[in-house]
Amino acid sequence: SRKMKNESTVINVPAESSSAMKGKAPLIGVAKDHTTSGSGGYKRGLSIFDFLLRLAAIIAASVAAGTMFTSDETLPFFTQFLQFEAGYDDLPTYQFFVIAMSIVSGYLLLSLPISVVTIVRPLATAPRLLLLVLDTAALAFNMAAASSAAAISYLAHNGNQNTNWLPICQQFGDFCLKSSGAVVYSFVAVVFFTILVVLSGVALKRH
Which letter, b or e, does each residue of 65-77 get, where b requires 16 or more Cβ atoms within 10 Å of its Cβ? Predict the structure, then answer.
């Protein structure tokens, strides 16, 4: 009987340890799923904010391009043979501004489906990485157009005595008002792009 007791003891000990191991396994799995779910919800929230920012950036870039495109003004004179006119197409920098902001608006519109993918699949890194690279390039393009146009707007308002460039905004007030407003909207788009790049970097960070 003593022998049978020993055998039963030998049999029961691994059975208990096996049941303990079985009991611990589901707990580990539940904790892992909970962590993944929390990270996915956090990144989905960032993706939704990213989508809304893109809509706002589309509006800012489109208004900038449209305002500059319509910034023509003709001074009224008594004779139709002598007229002074100012328009964006008279300045290559403003022409570049209209083209650049139109391209930026088009890119933002095309990036919306990719942003939707990041909402549906918040843990996917490839779409977010693609947006980060493209947004950075678009930010540099937008900044170049806004900065160059801002320099021309400054000269239009203040002129430059060293080069005998006279300010024209006293005569072409509406033209300067529209062109300056377009520059302001372009810098608003720059701010939105900067936030988008930061959001993409945060979303790519592992939690």
Answer: bbbbbebebeeee
Whole-angstrom Cα distance, residue 144 to residue 198? 19
d(CA 186, CA 96): 13
pLDDT one-digit tens code per residue, 155-174: 888 888 787 777 878 887 78
Residues in the chain, overall count: 207
Contacts of 165 (CB under 8 A, 6+ apart): 155, 159
Tell me the residue type at 35.
T
Residues 137 and 170: beta-carbon distance below 8 Å: no
The string of DSSP letters for 121-170 reads STT-SHHHHHHHHHHHHHHHHHHHHHHHHHHHHHHHHH-BGGGTBPP-TT
User: pLDDT tens digits for 19-29?
Assistant: 444 444 443 44
Exposed / middle / buried, residue 143 (Cβ in 10 Å: 0-12, 13-18, 19+): middle
CB 136 within 8 A of CB 129: no
pTM for this predicted structure: 0.75
How far from the centroid of its chain's Cα atoms is residue 166's Cα?
A: 38
Residue with token string 């950075």: 136
Q: Select from 171, 140, 136 the least CA-distant residue to 156.
A: 171
Which residues are CB-neighbours of 121 under 8 A, at least 6 positions away? 127
Both structure tokens of 127 = 């779409």
Structure tokens of 80? Answer: 């139709």
Of residues 129, 79, 101, 111, the one with CA closest to residue 185:
101
